[in-house]
Design a protein that fits this description.
454 residues, 17 helices, single chain, two-stranded antiparallel sheet
Length: 454
């Protein structure tokens, strides 16, 4: 990493960032099709405002939180001199500087993000700015003892270079009542975090939900004054949540009843709502010709008034700029647009999508498969109309070429679906409760069909 990465940000450099920033190269689609068109649909070229960000006030602390929150699950990577992958700290610094310069002040990370590198990289970038200029959120992840939980909590503060945490989450709870009780209640960890909140080292204590209705209700009604809750909310999940999740209409409604601020994850449903099928895109364009699918999704997620911030994992500068425009300021979804999104949702839920959000919880696969990349390629091909199962289809040869070439480009051969042995290890880790081996086998059969009918 660069020798200046830990230094306070230079004023001249900060003003340069404020004025425009560096446009990073994008890799939206590794496929052999649709890249240029997709980028034109996703991004506009208008100026990025520096002083129009929408803020919501946390009634517990009075924090003015930017409606756009920075999700730090997927920071950019690079190859070092030893041929090893590492966080591209220069790129992280650039993105963080640009975000803060344009009004973003909420940053969400976790010890397990980016192979365990996210907190340290985020801490380096943020520590170059005044502590009062940002809010940091992190999580108690994948632990089951008091000692390991306390050690993780203290390591988080060390890596983030802070002596207090603005928002601290019990991570990925709600799978069952027993899971929550074992991990946080019986272990004594919840009592420890409550004491830390009382001491001021945790300013807001909350939790992130992936699970079942009974699990959500149990944690929500537990004898704790929760300061916030993170839920998955987007226009498809409002009434058609899949896997290990509950309809956002219910989750959000229960939080409103208790006046608990909502933090939103998955506004794009793993990117799928940013690259909708042509049929759905046409419906959107008939209502708002100039708006990208991503803008529709972010406006939807930010419209409810009890939403404190909407998280987006912005690896590329284009993504960051587009989302800043959307929330600077937010234009709430109106009644006509709600009806449009209802029609779009009907198209999406009746399609062939694999409901993967690319959260990486299934990784690493013990046999080296890249599960999220395989599913992402398949879903992209559905979006662009490049799934043709009959060799007599008019566009079969074009679709076949696009799928096979794009597959090899986006997923190395040794990490593709045909190497799945159905060990089922991934099943328990998937928040969407996808039958991953079954879907991998389906993709493998489709690939073999394409090869045979070449």
């Amino acid at each position: 990493m660069g020798e200046n990465n830990g230094k306070k940000i230079n004023r001249r450099r900060f003003l340069k960032t404020l004025g425009g920033g560096v446009i990073a190269a994008t890799a939206l689609d590794a496929c052999d099709f649709g890249g240029k068109k997709n980028k034109e649909q996703l991004f506009d070229k208008t100026a990025v405002p520096t002083d129009k960000m929408t803020y919501r006030t946390n009634h517990n602390t009075g924090d003015k939180v930017s409606l756009l929150g920075y999700g730090c699950m997927r920071w950019p990577l690079r190859t070092n001199a030893n041929g090893e992958e590492e966080i591209d700290q220069d790129a992280v610094n650039e993105l963080v500087d640009y975000a803060i310069a344009h009004g973003v002040n909420y940053f969400d990370t976790a010890p397990v993000y980016v192979r365990g590198w996210s907190e340290k990289a985020t801490g380096i970038a943020l520590s170059r700015h005044p502590r009062e200029s940002y809010f940091i959120a992190t999580k108690s992840s994948r632990i089951n003892t008091l000692e390991s939980g306390i050690a993780m909590y203290r390591k988080s503060m060390e890596d983030l270079q802070v002596d207090y945490l603005d928002y601290y989450l019990l991570h990925n709870v709600g799978k069952s009542i027993e899971d929550f009780e074992d991990r946080f209640v019986k272990s004594g960890l919840l009592d420890f975090f409550i004491k830390e909140r009382k001491a001021g080292r945790i300013r807001n204590l909350g939790w992130s939900f992936h699970g079942i209705t009974e699990g959500f209700d149990h944690v929500l009604n537990f004898v704790v004054d929760w300061d916030f809750c993170m839920i998955q909310l987007n226009y498809q999940d409002w009434k058609y949540a899949t896997g290990m999740n509950v309809n956002a209409e219910y989750l959000y409604g229960e939080l409103v009843k208790r006046n608990i601020p909502a933090i939103i994850m998955e506004p794009l449903l793993g990117g799928r709502l940013g690259r909708v099928p042509i049929e759905a895109l046409t419906v959107m364009k008939n209502t708002n010709p100039d708006d990208s699918p991503a803008k529709w999704a972010f406006r939807y997620a930010g419209t409810p008034q009890n939403v404190l911030t909407v998280l987006s994992g912005m690896v590329y500068m284009e993504h960051l700029q587009e989302n800043i425009r959307t929330y600077s300021p937010l234009e709430p979804i109106n009644e006509e647009e709600y009806k449009t999104l209802e029609r779009v949702t009907e198209i999406l839920v009746n399609g062939e999508y694999i409901q993967c959000t690319e959260c990486q919880y299934c990784m690493p696969c013990p046999y080296g498969l890249d599960i999220p990349a395989t599913f992402a390629h398949y879903n992209r091909c559905i979006t662009e109309g490049y799934i043709a199962k009959d060799a007599q289809d008019e566009n079969y040869r074009k679709a076949r070429r696009a799928f096979l070439i794009g597959y090899d480009r986006s997923v190395p051969k040794l990490r593709q679906a045909n190497h799945c042995i159905n060990c089922n290890k991934c099943l328990e880790d998937c928040p969407q409760r996808i039958n991953i081996p079954e879907e991998m086998n389906k993709i493998d059969r489709y690939v073999e069909q394409l090869k045979i009918n070449g």
